[in-house]
Amino acid sequence: MTPDPPVPFEARTIVMRAMTGMYRLHDNRFRTPEFNPGPRGPGRFHFFGTPHIPVLYTAATEKGAVAETLLRNIPVTGGAIAYEDYETKVMAALEIKREVRLASFLGTDLRALKVAPEQLTTTPLDNYPQTRKWAEAAHGAGFDGVAWMSRQDNSDRAYMFFGDRVTEDDFTVVPGSGRILAVEPDKDWLADLCATMHIEVLPDPTLTA
User: How far apart are CA 123 and CA 99, in angstroms?
Assistant: First the structure.
């Protein structure tokens, strides 16, 4: 069970320097640096506030972005990604233009908050109402976002930025970094990546009927 965040909330700080790179995998209805305004699609650390605080999720690597977005509900024993789950998904690299401060939900920084990964960053989705309280506490403490290790890829950092502290204009899209996951050769890239994790990327069913 996820406890309520401590009061006062004194998380350790990760300072993300200007020009730090990251990747965002997202639905094509958004621009790559465009924040999700909500309220559709509540998650581990969003949405909260009245009105809802917009959010933008990224990961330190392409693999981490895939893990956070497409692999969330696939067991470690393997499975499949349906075409409908990636047909509108695109990905690109971003660089942040200025320094930002993120609340650290990493490693021993969690111990400093007296919480374990299985209570905050690796919980199942039915516990998201509690984990969102921690993001809200970080926001209330003045942080620009939060950082943690991906539940599905604990070698890569994941990030979430608060849209009232960081804006689309604070990011630059890296030229030539874009991927359209339903189109070759990016579809092959995704299939090859997932195959190493015993996950099949299913084709467009209208082409195989």
Answer: 30
Would you say residue 42 has pLDDT above 90? no
Residue 38's pLDDT band (cuts 50, 70, 90): confident
CA distance 161 to 167: 9
Measured in degrees and rounded to the nearest 5, phi and psi for residue 199 equal: -120, 130
- Reading the block at residue 75, the tokens are 């067991």
Which residue in this structure is represented by tokens 């921690």? 134
Residue with tokens 């789950």: 85
End-to-end CA gap in the chain: 45
Say if residue 8 is preceded by a cis peptide, omega within 30 of 0. yes
- At residue 208 the predicted structure's pLDDT band, cuts being 50, 70 and 90, is low
Q: What is the DSSP string of 88-127?
A: TEEEEEEEESS-EEEEEESHHHHHHTT--HHHHTS--GGG
Q: Which amino acid is at 168?
A: E
The structure tokens listed for 162 are 């608060």
pLDDT value of residue 125: 86
Is the pLDDT score of 122 beyond 80? Answer: yes
d(CA 154, CA 140): 27
Strands 55-59 vs 157-162: parallel, antiparallel or unpaired: antiparallel
- The SS3 of residue 186 is helix
Residue 118 pLDDT > 90: yes
pLDDT score recorded for residue 13:
98
